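Notes to self after the call with IL:
- keep both proteins in one doc
- input above output, always
- annotate only the second one for now

Protein 1:
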Amino acid sequence: MFDHVVIGVRDFAASRSFFIQALEPLGVTVAHDGPLGVELCRPDSLSSLCIRREPEESPAHLHLAFTADNRQQVEAFYRAALAAGAMDNGAPGLRAQYHENYYAAFVIGPDGHNIEAVCHEAEA
């Protein structure tokens, strides 16, 4: 269901330490650590939790990314979400900055959260 969940935090060091320690017994490890934050997942999983640095003055945001089986599902999600009242935040397309087959669409839901559908497979 979820590809990844992104949460913004104000105290990045404390949150990073907390999630790494708390999730370690569940087999969760650091998959990527970079300037935006840290990505945590199990070694055998495609789902991840991303902890992002947020400026103190901005509210923490929520980003939900749902797994799509193919690019047509990404496109159908985007159309359905817009029809349901979401605001566009990125039409379906490749996002090569993530990887060569990262095909996603983004919308802003009714509460202002960034909602994504993503397919990691090459075009069929």
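Protein 2 (the one to annotate):
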Amino acid sequence: MKKLFYIGALSALLLTACGEEEAAPKEEAPVSEEKDTTDKVAETKGPSQEELNEKMRSEAIELDFVKANGGEIEQDTKVTISGKVTNITEEGVGGTFTVTTKEGDGYGMFSVKNFALKDVTVDSEVTVYGVFDGKDELGFPTINATIIE
């Protein structure tokens, strides 16, 4: 009698285990729907890098050293400067260099963080587009550059 009870209980467990395996594929259905949604988002195209660069060039304002040094320019303002590279502190992407500009009767010195994937050399003439990042530890107005020409 005990054997029949154990066989019955074991059969019930096996059938229950088989039933749970069938439930697992049903749970995967929402995951595949999420994947479809992700694929649709991936298919949606944003602006190209060239379009973003053109937008930056058109929206950037000429950064005035006196205003930048005097705190009259808001941080994260899109700006541009043109001048000569006079010092390179760190080379490569994420590196820092100094650009000296001629403004009126004087000169302005800006610290530029290079995020533009462009190498620069001392004494080269550059035009920098990026966002104003306040002042660095030496007090120079700083630009996070995304375009260097």
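Annotation: The first strand starts at residue 61 and ends at 62. The chain has a mean pLDDT of 82.
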